Predict the 3D structure of the following.
Amino acid sequence: MKNSPLLQNLVLLAGSLLFLAILLEIFFRFMPVYDGFSFVAVNEQQPIFHARPDRTITSSKDWDFYNARDIRINNLGFRNDQDYTVGGLHPLIAVIGDSYIEAVQVDYQDSFYGQLHKSLEGKARVYSFGYAGAPLSQYLSWAQYATQTFKADHLTFVIISNDFDESISWRNGRPGFHLYERCDKKTYCLKRKDYQISPLRKIVEASAWAKYSVYNLQIMSFLRKMKHRIKNVTDPEKPKTYVANALAVVDPEITKESKIVIDSFFKDLPVYTGLPARNINFVMDGRVYDAAGDTSFEASYFAETRRYFTVQAKKMGYTIIDMKPVFSTHFAKNGKRFETKKDAHWNESGHEVVANELHKHYNSRL
């Protein structure tokens, strides 16, 4: 009995698609596809958010593999060329934050903490703890880890625009982080949101073609945007205005909640770290540093929350290193911007300026 033409065509199509998939997989395995960090599960037994350790991954952006570079994940699953050990001859500085600590836009030696480690060699060690998407609330978890496990003597936090509202559990759906939930009308309590690696994530991380589609092309983000546009086709949303990476104007309730987050953070900080205020400082992102952006910045959500954060920090004796006037001075002098071409993260110049400010701070204290 002969096979029908339809069945033959289906078999031929399936074979052709399989052959094409194999060719694409082979091709992308030779290209600098973004690997992803491969984060481990977060739960009661393993509460620290970190990546799978002891690896070198490739980082790149967009379809054209922009800014491709190798990134080392150290022995404890953090982006740093050093392996972390307990104990040492010199004081330990732990720098904590989000994607500004992850810093895949630059090589380790060009990151501000890599430069700071080198400039303070013989006086202090510098360890980094941070990954993209982490909010202010998650910083407390890493700060506790740094002080309890590695006996960190000093802490530097990098503060950016979305650190505050994304610390609230009902505004941040990402698992793995420690987030604030309401305890009562005026305070929040820190709660861990467990993370389990999904089967789909395992499939993506096993295929270079899949990683290119998900990480470089951001296909999932594209599909979500298309779904949202189709859903709202009859009533399109007005274009949103951002200052830094937060909405310029938000609901007053979000601003109120963000201030409660800030109050809760400062209440929890000495409990989680055990360090005196003089040993802790905050680097405030100076994203808007050109004169053209000053007007919109001063009226924005980020400006209001960073002002509130700064006032509360100083009341408690913490040091604020505000990069906005520093960046503004440098930009007015030489016209060099501090972000990479394709995103708003600091480039080598931005990291260098931050490193210099931190070096001045620590060199006078160590």
